[in-house]
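Troubleshooting: if your tokenizer reports a length mismatch, compare against these two reference records.
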Amino acid sequence: MNNNAIPLPKGFTWTTIPLNQPINTSEPNSESVILASANNTTSTESVVSADIQDRLYKFLKNHYVANSTLRMEYSADYLSWLLSWNSNVTLYNNEDSLYKGPLLFSLAIVSEKKPHGSIYGYISGLPINCIIDGERKLVLLVNLLCVHSKLREKRMAGVLISELKRKVSIHGIDCSMNTSGAYYERFNRCSVKYCHRALNAPKLIDLGYWECRENPAKKRDEVAQGDRNFEIRMLLKSLDPDSMRDGIEPVTEMVIEELQQFLIKEMNGRYRVKYDFSDINLVRNMFSIIPNVNYTFFRRNTDGVIVDIYSFTLIMSNLINSDQNLLRAYGFHSVSTESISENIRETMIMAKEFLGADEFIAIPTLQNEDAITDRSLQFREGSGDLHYNFRQWDLNKLDSSFIDWTIPMCNPNDIGVTMC
């Protein structure tokens, strides 16, 4: 086992950034497990000051997930929620109890001369209990890999991944999962398309972000304004707030246990890859409402039994070369025993009417495909791909019957996990 950090180019060094619990400005608590390999810190790692969290948020805001049109802006509260799912969760590897969360591997590359200055690279790894083909497995959710433009030619993404791999191997974690826009044939097990649905149609159309369909009833001498009004009418038609069913309530602490039992029952035997919801703290951490970050609602039938879970997250996206932004709602973990189309429709209504979201985005995992293909909901397939990558770093332990490297292990219907 290599106890030495991966070498960096001259002038740069490693540091760890705690994100899933409050930190003070003194030296980190030696008993804290959220600092990756807390008892194995190397001499090349610098002590973290509290304000590095704010600098990380700014770094990701300026350099993470952008295309020619939009750049996603993760808030501080969003990152704290995303990286604290395993807080107070007992983490297992096979059937052996390993740790009591939170456990987070949070690595950054900073300037050696100014360790409290700019961040030039970042990666996170969150261990989470999953069930893969019926076997409980501790899986590292790799997220937020980001490299400053000045270092991208130096292949720092691979260096960040290698250092994360070295860190987690100390803890006996050898399996990871991440999503990416790029396709990696060796690791890819499933690929899906983002699907979009305009909520604030006038805004998206006027910004040129949403293309109008042609109004079939438009006369030849009418201008394109006819298409705009037709598109807005069509999009608003299926999102009437008065059409929502009775019995929808926000999730509170009082229903977390009931929510857990519902999830376990509905996920059982349905997906090959899914979260292990047997620890109630995972359910609490993932589905409790956090304002402006994560929202979960549920619905009971007339017998008082939970039959629907509505779940979505909110992320602000900034338009490139513009002072405009879009509030986008991302479908997170919706489950229904009756109609997933109605579930998603009501989710979009809540995101639009209660929180002012401009757009709703979903991917065809869990039950979502039936809703996405429902023409009445008017989803449009985006141009971006989302690839699910699974890495079993200790390849000698792979059972050939478990994964076929030439045939994707999963189709979208096998995936019961969502990553943000």
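Reference record two:
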Amino acid sequence: MNVAEIVSLTANLIVIVIPWLLIPLAFTVWLRYRRLKYVRYQWDARLLELHLPSEITRSPRAIEILLANFWQRNSVGGLDQVYFDGRVRFQMSLEIASIEGQIRFFVHCPEKLVDLVKESLYSQYPGIEIDEVEDYLPQVDELLLDKICYGFYWRKKKPAPWPIATYKTYEHDKNPDEEQKIDPLSVLLEYLGGMSYGESASYQFIIRADTKGDWRSGDALPFKEQEDVHDKVAATIKELKESATVEVPRGLNDEGGEQKYSVTNYDPGTPELIKTFRELDDQDTFEMYVRGLYVAEPTAFKGYKIANLGAVIKQFSYSGASAIGTSFETGSSDEEDARARVLGPIAKKLNERKGFKRKRLFVRAYKRRSAFYPPHTGVAPRALWEVFSEEVATLFHLPGSVASTPALKRVDSIKSQPPSNLPF
């Protein structure tokens, strides 16, 4: 075979192979474009502010009613609607914010879910008021150029189904005395209540229904199977039982061989952990991103509040299950800072430029509440949580009187018209 034949054969192979290699890329680009268009023009997202009633006696389990109703809205239609129209599962952002020390609760959702959110919350919290409001976050340019801001993504150090510490861990749902309850959200609220003039901080818990294995989710082709969280629960329970099972000699059998029998010897806490897994297995599952943002005027900036922004989330770590760590932050890492100190001003300048790009990416995603879908997919891929509804309700719920911080405003429980015979 001469050179001309080799070149001809290579050219023919390229003509045949290259199109097949480009098909997955073209499909990915097409799907991203259609989803971006759908999310931007079809969702018509709204921001709802929740005004807390003066008395709340319900446990965080009340939020699970909202989550159950939201999970039922995970269907997006047929194959053509998913892969040609770009339809995606609804997402919802549950938010707690403090603007200069005033704590406020929000739900950011598509317009089609507004009635569902209101009906679910009205049914569980008598006296609650829900208003549609403008975005409390400043514009992106203002955040980047005029203010000091710092943000985090958090991740679970152990993957699903290992849970974080929930309100049931603190027996919040079992204590009838409101004053004796332990609300794991109290520390976070105290931190937010400590914001002063010129400061603000907020947390976003962005969720969508976890429907792995279903091609209608738009995340997998019909022939691609993915492991469900409930399958992971069964596998984890089996693994815990097998690791605690040992074989003990029992003597000799009739043929002279050694007999053994199995004994289960659990470590302290393992039976309770297995019980927790079985309870969680009955709940709906969600995918979730957890992120927070601290914003301050240059004259009001307090550096220690950046560390506290992350610390109050890490308190939900569960010693018997999953700890919580930082996955992404807008500042430079310790390794980058150390490298800059060694290499000098050029490395420091590169660090600053890299940090600004990272901050801009974070702030844009935060402002748009963008996480699962274009244009900000993959910002922090390791930060995706697979959680049960109990875990979501622990991180976001409406607190009772046990959370007594004065920064938490509540509406009057009784409203009426004034008497008609009042003197003027």
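Descriptive notes for reference record two:
- The two ends are 109 Å apart (CA to CA).
- The first strand starts at residue 45 and ends at 53.
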